[in-house]
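Example complex used in Figure S2.
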Amino acid sequence: MSAATSPGGAGKPVVIHDASLRDGHHAVRHQLDREQLRAYARAADIAGVPVVEVGHGNGLGASSLQVGQARLGDDEMLSIVREALRDSRMAVFMLPGWGTTADLERAIAHQVDMVRIGTHCTEGDLAERHLGFLREQGVEAQAVLLMSHMASPDRLARECAQLVEFGASAVGIMDSSGHYLPADVTERIGAMREAVDVPVMFHAHNNLGMAVANSIAAVEAGADILDACARGFGAGAGNTQLEVLVPVLERMGFSTGIDLYGLLDAADIAERELMPAPPTIDSVSVVSGLAGVFSGFKNRVLDVSRREDVDPRDVFFELGRRQAVAGQEDLIIEVALALKAARGA
Amino acid sequence: MKQNGRLPVAVLGAGLIGVDLAEKIMRSELLDCGLVVGRDENTPGLRQAAELGLPIGTRGIESLLEAPEPFAIVFDATNAMAHAEHAERLSLSGTKLVDLTPSKVGRMVIPSVNGEEVLSSDDINMISCGGQASIPILHAITQTHRVDYVEVVTTAASPSVGRSTRLNLDEYIETTQDAVRDFTGVKDVKAILNISPAKPPATFRVAMSMLGEGFGTASVNAAVEAAADRVRSFVTGYRITACVVEETKVFVAAEVTSSGGRIPKYAGNLDIINSAAVHVAERCAAAGLASIGTETS
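Predicted assembly (642 residues):
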């Protein structure tokens, strides 16, 4: 990629993990079809994006009323993307308690190159068995901690060290609520970097407009892998915008190996083919970031709030007070009913 | 060899489940807890059992096989992988097993639905906490309505989920799904488990969603209330927190608080499966269907 560079990155490689076809599913109620998956996977492959993640927004086995039923089954999504990728590696995501080892076996049959096992940030030991299974199968397994703003840097570092013992080849954190400011990221990634010898990953959400800045803070604190999505295609306010992050990294002297024009073409295809409109930081997304609630709750909160005639901002703040975590969408109805009852009282 | 007319039983496994179970058995008028077995006397569970004045063993299944007299009922509170071996090794002794792991080995029981039918089985399986909390409701609704899809989302507080459960998430999901299929006759079933890290810890809950046809608010509410009443007869902290009925979709949520003892109030997951297990064992005892040694009493 040719652009003016500064020496800060000193040519250090950063692995870009493209989650558009997994996290983007949150923005379109998990309704991506065959042509959409194929078109974007091909474009990302041509651009030289090293890793393309695919699946339901909540990962393998997660299609459900609780978080949304996907248009396509896991098998079909994986076979389409597998066929579309020549050089990029194919990744999937799985949350223990949602998917099982049987789902991992099917993903392996589709020749998945890498699996990410996710848990809530304080519950890393839920990943022990699945990381062990993947290691036995010889499949690269990364471990990621969700809703990471809910734990201290020290706790995250200890969880990461334990995940490495379980067999994780890389460990990382997700800012699932888009709650961090850069200093928060620096402190957490720094603590994790001290605690483990494997690559460290960071995944940002853009609720407070900080996704690119937070990602930069992460690499400067020692992160090796950054997640991003074309046009920020992701839950709520969206994720780190891929085609912005990559040139920023290159200008700073980090090396991504991605072709700029190919990347911009892929982002244009994403905007045209995958989404009604690119994610924006709307008012509800600001509130969800402030409240520290999973960005993926947005569409369900809006649906339920409309039905029960309550203010979605109140619903988000109350979910934050109850410390709801990713996957607890069933609480949205209870919170809305409680707010409605309190108003009627 | 009934002790004061009570049936001799033992608890295998001294984790979060095992110790609460031992304490519940101590309150039973029909059961006598003769042994709590773990692997290491320095674990908190075995220490607590000893503090309660209960005999303890530290050699796992061996401790049970070495007991001078076989127990009429052994509660298996270890883990799903270990249960098959425990069942095999105890099979010659004539001991009845009440299995609290999601092993799928024994006959599955939901006390308020098929409690009477399973009493003569040698190995009775308690399915899972989520199964015990949801299936009574799901069974009641599917008896009187056409249901095509069932989903059960369980949320348990992090401190109430012990190591065995954490390693057995796959078994938890598969066993819960199988049991829901079995008891409701609905083929398309999904079970999900969330662990909540909230502080103070969140109360155990189960959210049930059903897709079908011709749901009516009155008929669904009636089925749900009647089923909840039956569960409450032995799990006092069971309550329905939401019931939203649409033409083709029903959402019901239930919460369970623990009814006392040393487990905290939020840990309804431990309370409901242990209360159900003790309830089943008491019914076996009352029916004279756990007969080890009783001929000599």
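The mean pLDDT of chain A is 96. Chain A is about 45% helix and 10% strand.
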